[in-house]
Amino acid sequence: MFTLIVRRLFSLIPVLLGISIITFLLLQLIPGDPVMAYLRAAGIPAADETVTALRTELGLDKSLLAQYSSWLLQVIQLDFGTSFSTKEPVFDEIINHMIPTIQLTAMAMLWVLLIALPLGILSAVYKGKWIDRFSRIFAFASVSMPAFWLGFLLIYFLAVKLDLFPVFGQGSFLHVILPSFTLAFGYVGTYMRLLRASMLENLNEPFVLYARARGLKERVIVLRHVVKISILPVLTGLGMSLGYMLAGAVIVETVFAWPGMGHLFVDGIATHDYPLIQGCVLVMGVIFVTCNLLVDSMYSFIDPRIRQQGGRMI
């Protein structure tokens, strides 16, 4: 198991290097001049001497390869530069906004688990019953409803009309309920139906027949054996979704004015804050890849049939 994790970590090196190259090159393709953006943010007149001196200070007068090498060396040292708009280190800005995003994502993932897993299990066990038909309608609404529209609906009815929850910002526990549910709702239907399909397939496997022949209770067979195996594809999807939630909750954070990474990223784009945009994109990519690594590493703990030794599955 340890060898597998180490091998996975080494395999991340070229992936992370590719993310850094793409991030650096994408910023070169954005219209506009970083020097002019910096001068506008600082309120400094764009004199020719000032522009030339600042271009030299930022290293923009060097070749593209030299710029990338210098930037990558700084990134390895967790130095993402200084924000044009706030004049604060970009790394500090990302960390400060990462904590609210983690809180929002953790609560959203809890919503997904609390809703999708029970409904998925019940709809598989009681196939064709009313709970199965209800889960189909719920899943259809989940995957069809845009997040921003659901967010505005929740704000209008639960926050404005009924005054049950705060509308915007971060504060008490109540502030996180509406944005987290909005973020989670689009994923609930997908994983509910995925778990149902996986369970229906595994319920027809020979090991279920053998377990019934041994006299095991149906509840024990379903919860201890079938669910444990059926949850593997759900786990894979949740790992992908966790990366999306952490790195891509831009719409939800904007609708609810949640001070997270998505909100910071949008502000950076609006102000043409090049170091901030670069840092956000790079961190989002690293988060996504790391989540996939964690999911792969958890497989062996969930399914004992999955082992790897010497590059072979046993």
Q: What are the SSEs and their pairings?
A:
Layout: H1 2-29, H2 34-42, H3 48-57, H4 64-76, H5 90-125, H6 130-144, H7 147-161, H8 174-202, H9 206-213, H10 218-248, H11 250-255, H12 261-270, H13 274-302, E1 308-309, E2 312-313
Antiparallel strand pairs: 1-2
Helix pairs in contact: 1-13, 5-6, 5-8, 5-10, 5-12, 5-13, 6-8, 7-8, 8-10, 10-13, 12-13
What does this structure look like?
The protein has 314 residues and is an all-alpha fold. The protein is 76% helix and 1% strand. The chain has a domain at 94-273: MetI-like fold (Orthogonal Bundle), CATH 1.10.3720. A hairpin with a 2-residue loop joins strand 1 (308-309) and strand 2 (312-313). Helix 5 crosses helix 12.
Attribute tags:
MetI-like fold; 13 helices; 76% helix; mainly alpha; 314 residues; two-stranded antiparallel sheet; single chain
Q: Architecture of the domain at 94-273, CATH level 2?
A: Orthogonal Bundle
Shape descriptor reads flat
Number of helical stretches of at least 4 residues: 13
For the biggest sheet, the summary is: 2 strands, antiparallel
CATH class (first level) name of the domain at 94-273: Mainly Alpha
In quaternary terms, these chains amount to: single chain
Distance linking N and C termini: 12 Å
Q: Predict the CATH topology of the domain at 94-273.
A: MetI-like fold
Please tell me how large the radius of gyration is.
24 Å
Number of strands: 2
Strand order of the largest sheet: 1-2
CATH-defined superfamily of the domain at 94-273: MetI-like
Q: Assign a percent range to the helix content.
A: over 70%
Q: Can you write the helix and strand succession as a string? A: HHHHHHHHHHHHHEE
**What fraction strand?**
under 5%
What is the overall pLDDT average? Answer: 84
Poorly predicted runs: 308-314
Structural class of the secondary structure composition?
mainly alpha
